[in-house]
Design goal:
Length: 269
């Protein structure tokens, strides 16, 4: 079983093969709330996931938040064109549409990062429990979570380092412009990101060192004991769900919690 995750300023989501566990700290009751929901079933379009370059773009497109962000960007682009209209009412509508995009991005960034980078400790806890599972392959103990590294080579932060490199490389090659070039850079970054180190050791080590440095100094921090324990509980809950070890009443309780997530939590995952 392969486990991935994404963190927010007040919690995280861990993804397995069949289920995902959502975890969030609720300040009103002073404790963590856990939710369980099923992952989307693969479709015929998932054949794209086997095609180099395209599979990286497709993996991003499957995320609901990416789809909404793309739609908001399109709305903003229409709004910017409308601001050049000679009609005052059309210009006003254009400014409004542009501000909708700004407002949405502001809410999204706040939900993920907070004002003071609160996501760092949850991000570190996410990495530690996933890394511990990678070693044991089973439910993890408090000590195993504590001893694990908060740095993960599979982290999206490392992917950013690859994106920066491929953007520079693609910019000096005369092949298209605009959206096509961005998509090409993203697809190439994904291929390099998932490539085994032995196939291109010099590039992989350089990129991973850059990503590790970003994680260590900017994107993660050592979690508090309570945060790490909450992340450990979420991971062990996911393992039980994947192995069908939860009784039906317990499973339904967690699935009901997941249905009560906010719309922003649903977009993030």
């Amino acid at each position: 079983m392969r486990i991935a995750g994404s963190s927010r300023k007040d919690g995280m989501t861990l993804y397995g093969d069949k289920y995902a566990v959502w975890m969030q700290y609720n300040p009103k009751i002073g404790e963590y709330v856990y939710g369980l929901y099923t992952m989307e079933e693969p479709s015929s379009a998932d054949q794209i996931s086997k095609t180099p370059i395209l599979r990286g773009l497709y993996s991003l497109w499957r995320n609901r938040g990416v789809k909404v962000s793309f739609a908001m960007s399109a709305i903003s682009a229409v709004g910017q064109m409308m601001t050049m209209s000679e009609k005052k009412s059309t210009r006003r509508l254009g400014y409004f549409l542009s501000m909708v995009q700004v407002g949405y991005m502001g809410l999204l960034l706040y939900k993920i990062f907070g004002f003071k980078g609160e996501v760092k400790k949850f991000h570190g806890a996410e990495h530690k429990v996933i890394n511990a599972f990678g070693v044991t392959g089973k439910k993890i103990s408090e000590e195993e979570a504590l001893m694990a590294s908060r740095i993960s080579r599979r982290c999206g932060t490392n992917f950013v380092a690859y994106m920066m490199a491929t953007n520079i490389a693609v910019s000096i090659v005369p092949i298209g412009d605009g959206l096509f070039r961005e998509m090409l850079a993203m697809g190439a970054a994904y291929e390099l990101f998932r490539m085994p180190e032995e196939k291109c050791p010099a590039i992989k080590r350089t990129m991973d060192m850059a990503g590790d440095s970003l994680q260590r100094n900017l994107m993660t921090a050592e979690p508090e004991k309570e945060q790490l324990e909450a992340a450990r509980f979420a991971l062990n809950l996911l393992i039980d769900a994947e192995k069908d070890l939860l009784d039906e009443s317990e499973k339904q309780k967690y699935m009901e919690n997941a249905r009560e997530r906010s719309w922003m939590d649903r977009l993030i995952g």
